[in-house]
């Protein structure tokens, strides 16, 4: 009888523990689903604000999630921080602070998911921005790393027109690099990175083929590159397209 009661009591405890465990799993499952759903909601809202050109609202939304482990949220926060830094209403000190914050968010996004093409893209962009505050030597020194991240982004997503455009910008920058910057590059690298306007033009056209009329700046640089190559007829064609591009953002207005 004692043995029987002990066994029954043991079973009751085991059953109780089992039900507590199952209930915990169920609640945890709901919590995970809810957390996932919340991330998706934030991303959806963020993409809507980005498409609407609501830069300040977008940054306010995403900065609340700066401690997130989600790479999709973090690269969007890097982009939003950078976009806020680009506004004419942002002070010089704020621009600097936002540039460094954006780089940290992009770096964290990469740490969370190395296979996220947008994390590579925005890390490259933000690393380039920080170079503007640290001088030409740092900017040139980071150039190879920046290009590597852009190339990795294209490997992960060959159809992303923006990344293709960015490699075009990289090529254009090295093609028009003044002599004193070439000397710095020669001092930093055994084989300094170089490029040509023809190579830049190829990337700008590739970007346009991937997503026609996707970005006012790509149209502008097609025009500028044709001018560098002394083809005024084609330059006029692309500069006219840039001029007529509907201005949704401050950058579009600058273009």
From TrEMBL:
Domain of life: Eukaryota
Presence of keyword Repeat: yes
Keywords assigned: Cytoplasm, Cytoskeleton, Repeat, TPR repeat
GO CC list: mitochondrion; mitotic spindle pole; spindle microtubule
One family name in Pfam for this protein: RMD1-3
Subcellular location: Cytoplasm, Cytoskeleton
A molecular-function term among this protein's GO annotations: microtubule binding
Cited InterPro entries: RMD1-3_a_helical_rpt (IPR049039), TPR-like_helical_dom_sf (IPR011990)
Record note on quaternary structure: Interacts with microtubules.
Alphabetical list of PANTHER family matching this protein: REGULATOR OF MICROTUBULE DYNAMICS PROTEIN (PTHR16056), REGULATOR OF MICROTUBULE DYNAMICS PROTEIN 1 (PTHR16056:SF16)
Family per similarity comment: Belongs to the RMDN family.
Annotated protein name in UniProt: Regulator of microtubule dynamics protein 1
Organism in which the protein naturally occurs: Chlamydotis macqueenii (Macqueen's bustard)
Top-level taxonomy: Eukaryota, Metazoa, Chordata, Craniata, Vertebrata
